[in-house]
Design a protein that fits this description.
mainly alpha; 252 residues
Length: 252
């Protein structure tokens, strides 16, 4: 697989590249999504809509499932990032190899997510706009953490530096990406609103399963877009295309 032409991308081009990568890597990304988010999501469906199962044991199971979802979600983020990054740079990586490589990053990603959430929340409290700026400035922290093997604080600083001067573009990328992901959920919610009154409790369970399936299929696109955005920022600020070219020309 040849290394692609690495150059600064306009917003439309960035999304087009993200869609292309998502389509080409669909099987691997969905397999990672199934492995890392399928079981916690199905357990959550079982715990939430099914009547008559509440109790102390279920409360404990619900807490344990949230921990499982947190850890497996972090592994899924790292594995998806590795798959997209390798493919974007002209190489290939299987889902199994990506999951094996990703496990070591789970703890750091969880800490980084907590810190980012705390910082953005404080920004939102300060009249919302600072929160949006902080969210855009820290957007590629998980990607930098995984690909550059950084600690949580280092990754946040790295993201802040990479996005400086381009946070408007980051905001546009995040806004459109989130909209594209949320739109199918809105459509499915409208279908569920019709389905549930007709099918009763069975309709509730079916709607929950459909939501899980939809999440498994489309959530990887967010990490594809973030990875492409990360490389676009590196190309713009660090001439990453020259770095890759130098590596390909360097003698073994």
């Amino acid at each position: 697989m040849s290394t692609p032409t690495l150059r600064p991308l306009a917003l439309g081009e960035l999304l087009d590249v993200a869609f292309t990568l998502y389509r080409e890597l669909f099987a691997s990304l969905v397999l990672v999504s199934v492995v890392t988010s399928g079981a916690p999501a199905l357990i959550a469906v079982y715990l939430d809509p099914t009547p008559g199962v509440a109790g102390g044991g279920n409360l404990l199971l619900s807490f344990a499932n949230q921990i499982l979802a947190l850890v497996m979600g972090a592994i899924g983020i790292a594995a998806s990032t590795f798959i997209v990054s390798d493919h974007y740079l002209g190489e290939s990586l299987s889902a199994g190899a990506a999951l094996g490589r990703a496990a070591q990053f789970a703890g750091r990603l969880i800490v980084a997510s907590f810190l980012i959430g705390l910082v953005v929340f404080c920004g939102v409290v300060l009249l919302i706009v600072p929160g949006i700026i902080l969210a855009c400035g820290l957007a590629v922290s998980p990607t930098a953490l995984v690909l550059e093997r950084l600690g949580p604080i280092e990754a946040m600083g790295r993201s802040w530096n990479l996005t400086r001067g381009y946070r408007g573009k980051v905001f546009g990328t995040l806004l459109i990406t989130v909209f594209l992901i949320v739109l199918p959920y809105i459509a499915l919610g409208a279908v569920s609103a019709v389905l549930i009154p007709l099918a009763g409790s069975a309709g509730v369970v079916l709607a929950g399963l459909l939501m899980v399936t939809l999440g498994v299929l489309i959530s990887p696109f967010f990490y594809v877009a973030l990875t492409v955005l990360y490389y676009d920022l590196r190309i713009r600020k660090e001439g990453f295309d020259l770095e890759v070219l130098a590596n390909t020309l360097r003698p073994a």
